[in-house]
Structure formats: structure tokens, C-alpha cells
Amino acid sequence: MSEAETKNGYVVFGGRAYPREAVVFVSLVILLLIFLGLTAFVARSYHKKVHVLADNWFAQGEAESQDGRSANALTDYRNALAFTPGNPKFQFHLAQALAATGRAEEARSYLMNLLSESPGSGEVNLELARVAASQKHTLEAVRFYQSAIYGEWTKNPINTRWNVRRELCEFLLDHNAATQAEPEVIALADNTPSDDVPQLKTAAALLLRAQLWTRALDEFHTVLESSRHDPDALAGAGAAAFNLAQYPRALGYFDRLSRDRREDPNVSAMADTARRILASDPFLIGISLKEKALRTSRALTEAQSRVTQCSQEKGQAVTASPASTSLQQLFATSRQMEPDWTVRNLERHPERVVSVMDLAFQMEDAAAQSCGQPQGQDRALWLLGRNRGGAQ
Amino acid sequence: MSETTAPTGATAPAQPPVLPRSWASFRTFWSAWSGRVSLREDQFFLLLAVLIGVFSGLAVVCFRVAIDSTQLGLLGSSLSPSILRVLLAPTLGGLLVGFLMLRVFPRAQGSGVNRTKAAVYIWNGYIPFQTVIGKFVTCVLAIGSGQSLGPEDPSLQMGAGIASAIGRRLNLSQEKIRLIAPVGAAAGLAAAFNAPISAVLFVIEEVIGTWSGGVLGAIVLAAVSSVVTMRSFLGADALFRVPESRVARPAELLAYVVLGVAGGVASLFLLKWIEYARPRLEKLPPRTRYFLPAIAGLLIGIIAIWLPQVMGAGYAIIDQALHAQFTWKLLIVLAIFKILATGFSFLSGTPGGLFAPTLFIGAMLGGAVGAFEQHFFPSLGGTVGTFALVGMGTLFAGFLRTPITSVFMVVELSGNYTAILPVMFSTMIAYLISRKYHKAPLFDMLARQDGIMLPSIEEQREQVALVVENAMRVDAAIILSPDDRVADVLIRAGAKPESPLLLRGRFGDWRWVDREEVKRLGSESSENPAVADANPKGPLPTLFPDQSLEEALQAVGDWPLLPVVNRADLSKLEGVITLSDVLRSFRSKSTV
């Protein structure tokens, strides 16, 4: 306003006079518009800069995270988030990094915040479940796992839900929550496509862990239909059959395994026990009376020996009189009946086999209760007693 | 505007310069605005409030961007800057701030709230624009380099300065110029906080002190327009992302009692420290004041080597505390060291506000109480975020002594009413503790230390106003009816020689009857006339028992007495009051 001149409340400009207040007001509006433009430019430049910084920190965090340096990633994510505090993606990654570095409470806080914004998010629920699981908050973990299963998944929802359920099953089984695990494992098996061998095997393995033997055997059987020599399926099917007391079938599966796999301690123990059971079972159909009597007599001797050994472990004399413990009483009974239960008598009176074997089973059971799970032949006898008739 | 000279007025030039027709009509319209028609000026004032709001909003956007950019430049983009940066940035920044403050922008020193109050009560609304620029530059440097101060108080002062400058340019009346500074202050604070309600309440509670209808509308408009402007540039997100808050059980209120006490004690500590140290530092040789901000910066830098969270305003850290990302032990440590850092910065005279540090300390204290409760009493089920949120309001109420603003601020920041009960509970405890053990609120104390006697809003609030009821005399008058006979009146008046005579009219009006006039009428007339003929004076203005004595003083005028009547029944006399009764009452109060 170089030409401006103030005179009695007027501003003369370009040969014309204008009221001073009007000029000031118009000037203010013009100034406001200039200021507005300037602020817009400044703010836009600042936002751009801030977003670039945030993205850079985030990218660095991702790289650190992939290299397994969670603590460094954590700092990077925090820096990224400082520039865009409301960014859910950054928050989620930060929460994951926090969880990975054992800062479960902080991770939970971020995740709860994200959950309040998107309660149906499968990802957030799953991460919360993992955090709760790491804190051993079983009920909360189960709740979040279930919310994750039924939550929103943008990528491959069916497969992701299956995997989340598998994780839930594993969590429950790891925490000895078999009752809670059962329906989840069954649901997992029900939702497993019959043509997906790896998923079938996983489901069957979980069924096995949940001690749902029949269903596990079925699943492994399905796997074996499409992949006859799958060692995991054979071992699993063998284990399921073994636990169902289907010892010949179990041995059938174990025998189809490669030598290496057969030498697996679990497999070989089960196979050994199955063989012992089949070799010592007096109720097996098709064996002669003599063989039946021999097996019965051997079983009694075996049980007496086990009881004697167990009593010694407990510092008690098995032959103490009067017999005060169950082991002593059972041993005394067996000794009393010994003259009637010779091989010859048993061969003559095969109806006595049941009584003898019952006593032998009782003795093995009592010894197992007092001295722990039996091994070798005793284990075979004990299992035979528990699943009497199973060998048939 | 009252000074504006109309072209047709006596002082107008005989022949105005060439005047376009449209401008001539604008000029006439403008003249009508400029003081002659007060309603027009009021309306214009509202329009101006919007303009001020937009200007303040823009200024705050630039201010915040400048602070953040400076922080990025000096401290880097990491939340944990390198030791070299942590030590050098606040120290060198402090050195520059000290120089600028003493050599270039001396008016930028001091509390923005008090400067605005001083503008209202002492300088007729005048705030030099240089103050705005000075505040902007020095605070950007100070806060951006890591001094433990916040941008709200400077924003408030910048808003007030912008408003004052606009008001002066537009030749507003003196009354409006005086009121325009708080309008700008509200706009600046609202934009800085992104909380218009709290800003309006704060300005009313701390700067103006009254709910004046004349300025309330303008304050609200300015606050809203500034927030809208700020949000359109920086986004509509609240200052903090407050997680879902809940108060689990009534028993949890006990924990909020603890928080209230902790907040009260922390407020007291900070107040007492400032009260003790500030005058002593002011007495240091003037030359040392160049270096005080640098020394404060260095001390803060040393703290920040281990606790970088204490640097700057600390909004991001408050956000983390609200999301329970610190253990209760770390929260306590952060609260203690933030008190120290804030004390260093403020006492060194570095320009910047105390609002953000107050919120920071409150959030840390609250979070610590919440985390402690969650750790040791998990059955109570409270959330740390709620405690941190309530803690902010608690310290705000205890330290700044604005309890209503504190409660509403928490509600406004959190966006829900869940925390309203604990926040009311806690803030009141902290406020009462702080008031009990520290008589002068922070801003009054600072003003008095600076040798300025600004009106204390808290003291005004506490003042018990004298009312008519305190001064009136009950049963002191003889009430007459217009039909009463003079002879009867004389008998009644004789029984109470000191009591004045009041005539109650048929329509509830009251008149005073002179005894001498009644006696004269009785002696002159043989017919025993009615008292209405005794030339009663009036109708008298009436007062109500709850009216203030100031109102009574204005009403009493030359009347010998005034009737005090019942609000529900104007013909029912509660008492009478005279000028001497009013004066006696004032006198007795002043001697108490």
C-alpha cells in the first residue's frame, strides 16, 4: 500500500478514498487467505515428511523382525508409531514385537485397543489369544482363540481358521485340558478336507493326543488309503490300534514301517508290548489247552515275582504274617492256591484259567498302584488285564 | 471503533475525497457498527471472534508443526535419541533461547495466562504483536530442543496477542478491546488442546472469572472455529488416544482416593518448589539469566540419557501411559523426574507452558496407582488407562487449581463419561489438599512474585458476597393500609416511636409515610382522615433478601428506607433497609 495515505479515517489508494476499517477488514481477510495457504503448504509438507519417517521406521522394524531381532524391531515400530499413533498396522506389528520380547502386558494393551476398534478381527483375536496363552490365562486364551476362529480373515479364511483351531487344540492339549480339547479336536477333524494329507495327518495326530483312539485310527486309515506307506500315518494308526487293544492290527501297521522308524523308541516299545501280549495271552482263540495252561502258570509266576519285587522296593516282606497290605494278601492267596494251579491241573481244569488270570491281573494292578507303571512282560500282563479280551 | 469519524460528522472533512457509491454505503453501515449502535458492535464482535479463531487455529498449526520439525531436526526421529543429541540439543537450544529472550523478545517471558490477565486488567487489552512472534520463536526453540514444557500456554498467549492486534487495527471500543484478549486466549488454547470446552472453561475459570454473557458467545465461537481450523490441518484425532476405560467396582474408588492424595501432594511439591526457588533465581545477577535455560537444558539432557521420555511436551509418552505400556515402578520414576525436569525448565525462565508437563506427571502418577492396583489387587479389575486419564485431571486440578476445567477436560479428552465419577472424586481431593496447604494458586503466586496484583479468580470465587438479608432489619417498620385512620396510626406509631411507617398499597406497592405528616394531618383535620391522605412518598423500589448489598446501595438512592419483600409475595414485608444499614454491614465485614 505504498500509495496509501491515511486522512480522517479514510485511506486514499489509487486516487480513491476508502473507509479505514473496511480496508483493515479486507486486508485481514486477504492476510487470512495468505496465512491459510501458507499453513496448508507447511502442514502438507510436514505430514509428508512424517509419513516418510514413519514408513522408514516401519520398514526397518520389519527387516529387524524378519532377522529375528525382535528387540530392535520393537524400537523401530515404536518410532514409527510415534509419528502416526493411530496406525493399526503399526500397532499390530508393535504388539507382535512386544509379545515376542516377552512384554505380554504391553502387547495386550495395544491389542485390546485394536480390538475395541475392530472387535471382529481374526488377526487381533489370534494375537490376543497367543498373548493370553503365554501368560497362562487359559480361559481368556480359549475365548480369544474361538473369537479368532469365527473372526474376519481376509486371506484364505478357511485354511486360516483351520490353523487357528489347530493352535487352540495344541494349546489345550499342552495344558492338559483334555475335556475342553475333545470337542475342538473333533471339530478340527470334521473340518479337515479328506484330500489334504498333511492336514489329515495333523488332525489325526491331535486326535491321538486327545486319546480319541477310534477317530484317530479312522483318520490315519484315510491317510493310508491315499498314501499307503506314509510312516507317520502307519505309526499313528499303530498307536491308535494299540491303545484300542487291537494288538494284531497294531503290529500289522508297525511291521509296515521302515526299519529306522520301527526303531523309534515309542514304536518299538509299543510293538514289543503288543508282541508280548499276543505271546502271553491265555485267552487267545486257537491255542491248545496245554499252551493255555502254560501261559496261565507263567502269568501267575510273573505276577508273584512282580509283587515280591515291589514289596521289597517298599521295604516290606511279601511273606509277612498276618498279611496287612494288599500286595501281601494277594501274594498269600496265590501261594495258597498254587497246588491247585499247577500246569497239569490247569490243563485238566481249563475253567480255572479265568480265576488264576484274574488273580494275576489283580496282583499286577496292585503292584502298578504301589510301584508305578510296569515294564516288559509285566506291562504286557497289566495291559492284558486292563483290556481283557482285547487281544482276541 | 468509537473513534471513527463519520464523513457527515462535525469533525469530518468538508469535502471527502472521491468516494465510490458502494463504499459510501459501506462507510455509513460501518459507522453504525462503530459504536453508535452497540448491538451492531456486539454482532460484529461475534464475527470477529470467528476470524480470531481461524487466525489462532492457523497460528497453532504452524506452532505445532514448527515445534515438531525443530524436535526432528535437533533430536532426530527416534524416541531414544543419541546421548550427544540429548545433551547438546537442550543445552545449545537453551543458550539461544536465553539470548533471544533477553535481547530480542523480552516480552516473551513469563506465563501466558498471566500476561493475558494483565492485558485484560491492566493494559486495556493491549498485547504487543511482538509478543506473539517472540513466544512463537522462543517456545519453538525451547520445546523443540527438549525443554520440559508444553505448547498450550504459549498458544493461549499467541491467540490473545493475535486477537488484541486485530482489535486494535479495527479500532474497536475500549470495552471490546479489553474483552478480545480472552477470546483469542480461548481460541489459542482450544486449538492447542483440541478441546474447545476445556479451553472455554479454563478462560472463564482462570482469566475472566465470570460467566459474562457479553463475552461468552465470542469465546465459544472463537474456540470452536480455532479447533475446526486446527483439525482441518492436523486431523480430528484427540490429543491422546484414550483406551476403553471402565470403573470396575465401587471399591475401586478407594484407589482413586489414593490417586487424589498423591496428586495433591505432587501438586503441592511442585508449587512449593516454584514458590521457594523462583524469587531466589530472579535475584541472581542479570547476566546469569542468559545461561539459566542452557543449564536447565543440560540438567534435562542428563536425566534424558536414562529417561528420554522427560524431554519436550511428552504427548507420545502420555499416550503410552494411557495404554499401560510402562510398569508402575517406571511410571513413578517418570513422574518424579518429569517434576524435576519441568521445575528446571520453568524456573530457568525458559518460555513454555506448564499444562503439558502437568498432564504428563498426572498421567504417570495415575498410571502408577492403576498399575500398582492391577499388580497387587487384580480382583478390583481397574484399567491402567482409566487411572492415567483420571491422574491427568487430578494433577491439573491440584496444580493449576481449575477443578471444573479439569473434570471436563478428562471427559473431553476421553470422549466418554465412564471416568466422570473417579475424576470428580480424585480432582476434588487433590484440589482441596492443594488449596489447604498452599493458599495462592499458581498463576496468582507467579503474578505476585512478578510484582503484579492481578485479581485472583479463586479468591473471588471464595468471597462471600454480602446480601440484603445480612443488613436488613426485621419487624422494624409499622405496616399501614391506605384505609387506616390517622388517629389509629398515631396510637400505633406512638407505641413504636423509632419505627418507620410503610404504607402497603392495594397492588403490592410500598410507600413511605412521614410521621410528621401524619401528626400534622391529625392535628389539622377534625374528621380523622385516612392515612392515604398523609402524602405518602413512593412507590418505593423494593428489594429481595438475597440481593447483593451493591444492588441495595444503587437502589436506596435518596430514599430514607427501602422495603425488603418476599419473592413469592410482594406484599409480604421481610424487613427494611436504610443506607446506614448497608454501610454498617460493609463496615463490619471490612473489620472482620
Report what the structure shows.
- Helices cover 73% and strands 3% of the residues of chain A.
- Chain A is an all-alpha fold and 392 residues long.
- Chain A has a three-stranded antiparallel β-sheet with strand order 1-2-3.
- The longest helix of chain A is centred in the N-terminal third of the chain and has 47 residues, at 20-66.
- Helix content of chain B is 64%, strand content 3%.
- Chain B folds into three domains: 33-234, Orthogonal Bundle (Clc chloride channel), CATH 1.10.3080; 250-459, Clc chloride channel, CATH 1.10.3080; 468-591, CBS-domain (Roll), CATH 3.10.580.10.
- Chain B is mainly alpha-helical and 592 residues long.
- Chain B is built from 24 helices and five strands.
- Classes of the chains: A mainly alpha (392), B mainly alpha (592).
- At the A-B interface, strand 3, helix 1, helix 2 and helix 4 of A face helix 1 and helix 2 of B.
Strand order of the main beta sheet of chain B, please?
Answer: 1-2-3
Q: Write down how many β-strands of chain B occur, each being a DSSP E stretch of 2 or more residues.
A: 5
Low-pLDDT segments of chain A? none
Q: Can you list the strand order of the major beta sheet of chain A?
A: 1-2-3
The CATH topology of the largest domain in chain A turns out to be: Serine Threonine Protein Phosphatase 5, Tetratricopeptide repeat
